[in-house]
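User: We ran a pulldown and think these components assemble together. Before we commit to crystallization trials, I'd like a predicted model of the whole complex to look at. Sequences follow.
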Amino acid sequence: MMLKTHDCGKLTKSDVGTKVTLNGWVQRRRDLGGVLFIDLRDRTGIVQIVFNPDFSGEALDIADRARSEYVLAVSGEVVQRDPETFNPNIATGEIEIRVKEIEIMSAAKTPPFPVEDGVEVDESLRLKYRYLDLRRPEMQNTLLLRSKAAKIFRDYLDDNGFIEVETPILTKSSPEGARDYLVPSRVHPEEFYALPQSPQIFKQLLMVGGIERYYQIARCFRDEDLRADRQPEFTQVDIETSFLSQDQLLDMMEELAVKLFRETVGAELSRPFQRITYADAMNKYGSDKPDLRFGLEMEDITDIVSGSDVKVFASVAGSGGVVKALNAKGCAGWSRKELDDLQPFAARYGGKGLAWVTVKEGEWRGPIVKFFKPEEISALTERLGVEEGDLLLFSADKKKVVADVLGNLRLKIGRELGLIDDSVYKFAWVVDFPLLGWDEEAKRYVAEHHPFTRPHEDDLHLFETDPGAIRAQAYDLVLNGYEVGGGSMRIYKREVQEMMFKALGFTMEEAYESFGYLLEAFEYGTPPHGGIAFGFDRLVMLLTGRTNLRETIAFPKTANATDLLCDAPAPVEPSQLQQLHIRTVPKPSAKPGQAEAPKA
Amino acid sequence: MMLKTHDCGKLTKSDVGTKVTLNGWVQRRRDLGGVLFIDLRDRTGIVQIVFNPDFSGEALDIADRARSEYVLAVSGEVVQRDPETFNPNIATGEIEIRVKEIEIMSAAKTPPFPVEDGVEVDESLRLKYRYLDLRRPEMQNTLLLRSKAAKIFRDYLDDNGFIEVETPILTKSSPEGARDYLVPSRVHPEEFYALPQSPQIFKQLLMVGGIERYYQIARCFRDEDLRADRQPEFTQVDIETSFLSQDQLLDMMEELAVKLFRETVGAELSRPFQRITYADAMNKYGSDKPDLRFGLEMEDITDIVSGSDVKVFASVAGSGGVVKALNAKGCAGWSRKELDDLQPFAARYGGKGLAWVTVKEGEWRGPIVKFFKPEEISALTERLGVEEGDLLLFSADKKKVVADVLGNLRLKIGRELGLIDDSVYKFAWVVDFPLLGWDEEAKRYVAEHHPFTRPHEDDLHLFETDPGAIRAQAYDLVLNGYEVGGGSMRIYKREVQEMMFKALGFTMEEAYESFGYLLEAFEYGTPPHGGIAFGFDRLVMLLTGRTNLRETIAFPKTANATDLLCDAPAPVEPSQLQQLHIRTVPKPSAKPGQAEAPKA
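Assistant: Here's a predicted model for the assembly, 1200 residues in total across the polymer chains.
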C-alpha cells in the first residue's frame, strides 16, 4: 500500500524536487492531448497531479480508469508549473506532481451531487449522503472550527482551575422543563430512565460535593417540536462555580468569549461587554436578546397619549397597557403597500394593528394624525426626535404584545435599511431577569429560570409584598440578537429556598416530592454557587456565519427528528420490546368507526 | 457575602502577615479552654483557623455554632504557629488564621459518614450521598486525575491533526453486538432510536467523509448484565484514521500512552511496547490480555505425553486437545489442602481437574507420577526446567479450557508468590487476532472483531482454504492484565468485503440488509482506514490504583443499573407513555394459575 508522505494542500514551491506520495480523492480530471491532469483532494486542499506518457509509463493507463471521487495513491516528483499555467485560486497553484506510480485504493460510483462548495443541492439529499457532503471544504472547515472552538473553551477552563466532570446520560425524568426522552429499563420492569435536558441538577450536586469549578461539553436532549435552530440532541458548554460573585463569573466568561472569537475568527472584542437589565432590554428593544448592532430603540409614549383622542391609545393606556413608538429614520417614503404590509406583520406577533405617521415636507401625515393634539405632537417630536423624512410606528397593547410587535419590527427595519453590520460581533449581558412570572392559567407564580435561582439580596423583602418585582441573579449572554448562553446564581440558604417555594405555592414538604435529592443535598453544607451554559451549536453557527444549526453538526436530525443517513428512528424486533417490558400502541387510524382514541 | 481571596490548602509560611478571606467546609473543631480551632477544608486542602476572645470578638460566638460540614466564610490574618504545634501531616501545617470576621454561609446536618479518606462505609450509602462522598480527598483527586487524563488525550490528538467530532446519541439499533438501550419516538409512532454501543459506524463514515483523523471522548451504552468492571454507560476515547498503516497508528498511540502515564502518575514507560501475537499470548499465558509483569509461562507438552500411560493425557492428545503445564517454582511445599483446592479452582474455569507433581528431595511425587515413563520425565524436566522445590501443574482438555484454567492459575500463583510488582505499568500490544471464529451452534464463521475488520494481505488466499486461520489486522492494548484499548484496520476494497461476507455466509445483498448505509457509503470512494478505542474509565481506574470502575465515575450506577442518588430508573406518568405510543407490560407474577407468561 502506498501511504501518504505529504498532504495535498500543503505542497508549495519549496517542495520542488521532492519525491512525494499522496493519497486523496479525484476532484476533477482533464485529458489534454494524451496528458492526464487530475486534481487530487485531501482534507488539506487540492493539488494537480500529471500523468504523461513520457514519465508515467503504465501509471497513465491505470489513472485513465479513475473517475470523480476515486481514492488514489500516487508517487512522483514535485515540479514547478509553467508560469502561464499558475493557478492563483489554490494554495498549490504554482506546482504539480509528475506521477510515476499509482494505485487505485478504491473506486467510486458517480456521486449524487458534486463534491464542492456552493453547489445547490436539496438538503435532504445532502443529509442522506452526509459522508459525501462532509467532503466539501465548507463542511470540513465547519467541523474543524467546531473542534477548535471546543479546544479553546477547554483550554481556558482547564487553565482557570475548572475540572471536567462527566454526568450521566441515563438519569431520571424531571418534573419541570420540556418533554423528556425516555429509556425503558430491562432490569426494572415498568421503570424508565430519562435523557437529561441539561446536567443542571448534577452540576449543582457537584458544587455541594466540593468540586468548586466544574465544566463539561455536554450532550442534552429535549423531545420538543423542532424549529430551524433546534435539534433533539444538542451540545452545551456547561459550567458551574462556587464561591464566586455574579460579576466575577461574568468577567471570567467574557474573557473566555474574547479568547474564543480572537482565536477562531480573529475578531477583537472590547471588554467589558455591555450589561443591560432585562427591564431596559424589553423597554428599548422589545426583546430579552436584543440585537445591539444598531439603535432604533422604541420609546414608551403612554404618558403622552393617555388622554389622546386616538381612541385605541387612550383606552390601552387606561387599562394597564402601553403605547410605544419606533422612529424609522428616513422611511417616510415607504409605499402604501409597504405600510399596509405592516398590519399582517403586526398580527403575526399578536398585535391588533400598527399606526403610522410619515413626516414629509414638514408635515405629519397618516390616518391618525388628525386626532393628535398639538401638545401631543410637540411632546412626541421631542421624545422621538422627529425630523423631516421620518416614519413613526405606534403599537398600543398589553406590554408583551407591544414588545413582540415593535421588537420584531425593529429587526425587520434594521435589516431592510442596512443598519446591521454583519462583520460585527456585538455581545451583551442581559441581567436582572425577573425571578417569578405570573401564570394566568394556574393563578400562581412560576419560576422564570428555575426554583433554585437566587433572588437579589436587596429584593428579599418583596417576597412579602410584590413577588413579581423580585429581580433574579440570572443573566443571558446575547450576541447579535441570539441568546448564546445563560445561567444564574443559585440559592444556597435554606430560609431563602423556603421563601422561594412559598412564593411558588409549595410547602417544603411538597417541594421535596419534586426535588427531593437535590433539596436533601442542600442540607449538608451548600456553598454559594452559580453557573452558566453556552449553546455550543449556536455559537459555532454564528462563528461560521451559518443560519442553520444542522450545518454545524456532523450528523444532524431533520425538523421531524429523523436521521436520514441511518434511517433512525426505526421499528425494532418484538423480542427487544418484550425484554423491555413494553408494547407499542398503534396510532389510532382515522377510519370510520375507529375515530375515537383508545383510552390508555 | 465574604468570598474567598485565597484557597485553604495553598497557604504557606510565605503568606504570613497577609489578610485573607477563606471559604470552606468545617472538617473538625476543637475547643481548647475557650479558644476554638477549626480545620477548614476546600478542594485544595485544609487549614487551621483560630477563634480567640482576644482577637475574634463576636466571631467566636458565631463560630461556636458551626458543626461538621457547615460552610463558613472567614477573614483574618495568616500567622505562623508555635513551632511545637506544627502539623507535618498537612501542607499548611506551619501556619494558621487568626479570624476576625465570620459568616456561616450554610448549615449542615450531621453527615451519614465522616467526610475523610479511609473510612469504612457501605458503598450503597456512599452512592446515595455521593455529593458527600465526592468531598473526600481521594474522590476529589480521582476526578481531578480523570479530567487531567482527558486533557492529555485531547492535547496530544489536537497536536497531531485529529479533529474532535461529536456523533449522535440518538441513533439506530444495530443488528450485531450487545443489547441496545432503546428510546421510543414520539413523532414516529412505534419506532425507536437506540443509544450507541460505540460510534463505530459513524467514525468509519467520517473517514469516508474525508476527515482523515477523528477523535471523540464518547459516551457508549450497553444494556448488559453488569459486573464490577462494567457500567451501562461508559466512556471511551474513540479514534479513527485514514491513510495510516497499522504500525504507524500503533506507534502514535504508544507515544500518547507514554505521555499520559508520564503526566499523570510520573511513570516513564519504555518504547516500543512489546508486541505479542494473539497465538503466542494464548499459548504462553492462556489469555489475550496477559499480565506481563511476571513470567510463569505455560508450556505445551502434548507431544511429550501423547503416548503416556497417564490415560487422560493420552486420550486428550489423541482427540485434538492439548496438555499443558505450569512450573510453579519453589511451591513444592504447598499443603495437601492447597493442592486439593486447585480442583474446584480448575472447575470454575471449565476444567475437569488439575494434575500436580511436587519435586522434593530430588524425587517427583504425586498421584500421576507412577504412570510417567522415564523418558517422559526427562523430556518434561528439560522443557519445564524442573528443579528441586518445584510444583508442576498439568491441564489436559480442549485448547480453550486449558488456556482458561492455566491462565487463571498463573495469575493466582503470580499474586500469591508476590511475583507481581504493583508499581510497574507493563504495556503490550496483542496483535494478529483471528479474523473469524467458528460458531458451533450456527455452524458458520462469525467475525471475531466486526465484519469490516481488514484481513492480513498475506492471508487473503486462506479465504478459499482455511478461513479460520486468517489473521486480522486487529490489535488490543493490554496493561497489567487488563485490556485498555482495542481496534483494527478496516476493509476498504469492495472485493475483500465480498470475500469477508461470503466467509460469514452472506451474499452482498444480505449484508446490505444489515449494514446498508455503511456499505453504500463504501461505494463512493473509501480511504484505507483504521482506528482504536480506549476504555477511559478503566484507564483512570488503573491510573488511580482502584479496582472498581465506580470509583472513577462521578455518578455511577450499581450492578443492577440503578442510580442510588437520584433513584433512576423510576416510574413515569401514564401521559408520558401515551405520547410515546407505548404501554408497559407488567412482569408476570408467579402466583398459582398465572405461571404462564403472556404471549406478547
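Chain B touches chain A through 124 residues (CB under 8 Å). That may be worth checking against your pulldown data before setting up trials.

User: Thanks, that helps.
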